[in-house]
Design goal:
UPF0324_YeiH-like; 359 residues; membrane; 2 strands; 2% strand
């Protein structure tokens, strides 16, 4: 019981920060500038941690660690209730192929450019690449437990990766509507382009609504398939790390309980929970009320984890990272916009009839 009581001071602090983030994140004016509850939670946590560095230590410490570990994984599991396998089947093999190509090549390019050209740590480059390739801040926080970083590395790498998502996601909300107006494209194929290349789900929704027509519908369907690719990414990453024999991770780091074993492979159990929740959502066994509660709980847990990482993100840590994370984020953003546009120009025509027939 004493251990349970020990987490409450930190959790109450985080709940206060997250409450403001959720309130502002629901406002259309804030969302227009790329402010989602997840990114706002981390920003408010970072502001509090820099104004009063002592809050991340002492009495609040157990609650902060609880959010970074337990609530983070619970949030990833419950996030599965935002998805259904009908969405995956709805866009057919062409749509899945576009998403898989963009995710795999963006991840590979991010690690290659980050480590070889910019001389970044591989974990830092991988987190930035995951945020750009899959689903923004949610992908960053879902990848952290698999890497099993030391505490200081968790805060620094998470903050820099999320910063690239916020910056270039915001730029995308300005750029894509302008590109649409300049190119004179039809709304349906442009929506596929948006869904397969923009960082965050919320940013996809904003861009799709700004374009109008079928763009929002197609963009969201294609984007949710990218979110589903988070699970195979985490599973393959865990296998890769296992074969590297800990070369990317510290066996003494926090978060080892995030991994179970299947044979000789370390499996992130929360990724399997994510799949289980997506299956339950696909089967329709939950009422609308329970599904909505699960979705809100996922957002709350992930926001609490982001605020906890923010509390440990100091300006000193960000200065140590330098400009290289932003340079890598910029390279990946240019790749998504340019190469993603070329791929969609040549392949999206085959995709649209499948999408149109499924909704």
């Amino acid at each position: 019981m004493s251990g349970e009581r020990g987490v409450w001071p930190g959790l109450l602090l985080l709940l206060g920060l997250v409450g403001v983030a959720l309130f502002l994140g629901a406002d259309a004016d804030w969302r227009r500038f790329g402010a989602t509850p997840l990114t706002l939670a981390m920003a408010f946590g970072a502001a509090a941690g820099n104004l009063r560095p002592a809050v991340a230590h002492g009495l609040c410490r157990p609650g902060i660690r609880f959010a970074q570990q337990r609530l983070l994984r619970l949030g990833v599991v419950l996030y599965g209730f935002n998805l259904s396998w009908q969405e995956l089947a709805g866009i057919g093999l062409s749509g899945i192929g576009i998403d898989v190509f963009m995710v795999v090549t963006t991840l590979g390019l991010g690690v290659l450019v980050g480590t070889r050209c910019l001389r970044m740590e591989r974990n830092a480059a991988l987190l930035i690449a995951a945020g750009s390739a899959i689903c923004g801040a949610a992908a960053v926080v879902a990848t952290l437990p698999v890497l099993r970083l030391r505490e200081a590395e968790q805060a620094r790498h998470a903050a820099t990766a999320v910063a690239t998502v916020v910056l270039f996601g915001t730029l995308s909300m300005l750029l894509y509507p302008a590109l649409f107006a300049h190119l004179g494209s039809a709304t349906a194929p442009f929506g596929v382009y948006v869904g397969s290349t923009v960082h965050e789900v919320a940013q996809v929704v904003v861009i799709g609504n700004a374009i109008g027509g079928d763009a929002a519908k197609n963009a969201l369907i294609v984007k949710m398939v990218r979110v589903l690719l988070l699970v195979p990414f985490l599973l393959l990453l865990s296998v890769w790390l296992r074969r590297e024999r800990g070369a990317w991770s510290d066996p003494r780091a926090q978060g080892n309980d995030a991994m179970g074993r299947v044979g000789d492979i370390r499996v992130p159990w929360f990724a399997l929970g994510f799949v289980a929740c997506a299956i339950l959502n696909s089967l329709g066994v939950l009422s609308n009320g329970l599904r909505g509660l699960a979705q809100m709980s996922a957002t709350l847990c992930l926001c609490l984890a982001m605020a906890a990482f923010g509390l440990e993100t100091t300006w000193r840590l960000l200065r140590q990272a330098g400009l290289r994370p932003l340079l890598l984020g910029g390279v990946l953003f240019a790749y998504l916009v340019g190469v993603g546009g070329w791929i969609n120009l040549h392949l999206a025509g085959a995709l649209l009839p499948l999408i149109a027939g499924s909704v």
